[in-house]
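Team,

Forwarding the record for the chain on the shared tracking sheet. I've put the sequence and predicted structure together so nobody has to dig through attachments.
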Amino acid sequence: MSDSHHENAILALIIIGTLMGAIDVTIVLLALPTMTAELHAGLSVTIWVILIYILVTAVTTTQFGRIGDMFGRGKIFNAGFVVFTVGSALCGFSPSIGYLIGFRALQAIGGSLMQANSGAIIADTFAPNRRGRAFGFIGIGWNMGAMLGIVLGGFITTFIGWRYIFYINIPIGIIATALGLKYIRDDKKTDAKMDLFGMLFLTASLLLASYGAINITGRGVTPTNASLIVLGLALAVIFLLVEKKVKHPMLVLSAFKNRVLSFSIFASFFQSVGYLGVAFIIIMYLQGIRGLNPFDASLLLIPGYVVSSFLNPFMGKLSDKYGARIIATVGILLMGITVLVYLGITATTNLYVIVAATVVSGIGASMFWPANNSAIMSNADPKHYGSISGLARLTSNIGTLCSFVIIITIASLSVPSRVAFQVFVGSSTLIGNISAEFLQGIHTAFAVSLILLVVAAVLSTVRGKENRDELHEKLKQASN
């Protein structure tokens, strides 16, 4: 097999892994009402089927990337396929909500093993001046997965049963594992070490803060959940202080000496916090205020995913030629325009406005993600590709978790907690004064998102210029 065919095979497998992970983020949204009813669970518990997946991936990505540096990125990536497939099967067999949440955590470990090492494998396989296009195709995997999750989640849950949203991963995972063992054989190793103490602090911090915030939506502001949030934030500060002193920190602090890399990572974090929960809150608006069922509401978001999928490789290729700064920044600004449009929605806004806004956001996403991810990996030390790939996913996943928690909390404070949770799972439609109050809560959440996107745009703008061809030459000289 020629080098180009081998590269394409590796890229295809990473796209499949990305697609599977994306499907299982969005596919669960539409199955929440059915899961809640069939497993006889409380709504405040069921929502952890979503959050536990994001939480686990957030706290494990850097360490799993470091494991890839230690034992071979290809081996760890392929192990991720195996764990993800097994976790998916167990999720489908879950007899109770507790088992389902636990098996979702296992599934997330598999997804994290793939996420943490996929960027490093791309960096190992493609030269710096060709990575943007590769990351663009990975963006297709994410967008197609998110879109398929939306469509399949509604269809499978309605006509087949919610357990099959997990079973569909089994044949795909088996085939992908076999192909991965054949084509992804990267065995490069470094002397990287684990930071289990740091991971413990980060896990406790995110878990306490998230649990406290979600409890606010279910029970209102109480001394207990307020204390949990404060304790979680305090542990986050301790985590950062500890990271400065340990020999092999979870955060690769030396990476932040590179201006382009560090500002790209921070831009990714604020973009994730500011935007990745927006689709969820729009679904709440369409269900709770406009009265659409979850499946019909989600269909309105598909045009944005389609547009983004088509544009991702093209935008990634442009970033290879011109650098990430302008392309990624414009992408963030387009997302900001989308949120600005959402700030003006009312209970009678034409639904075509929502569709048009999703298209604008899709264009923005296709510009930001390939360019920004390529900038991160192109400016990383090849010896630490796994760690940097994991670090990039860590900041993005923490941002995603924060985005969901912040947006759910802000939007739900405007109405009684019982009503808010009914809206979140699509089992209630609001009317009258409660509808107006909830709409105000949604507007407040969008305003916070817009502020965070402005911060992301500023960070993206000041990251500095880069020349991919020069980076490629430097790496060639260093390897010689």
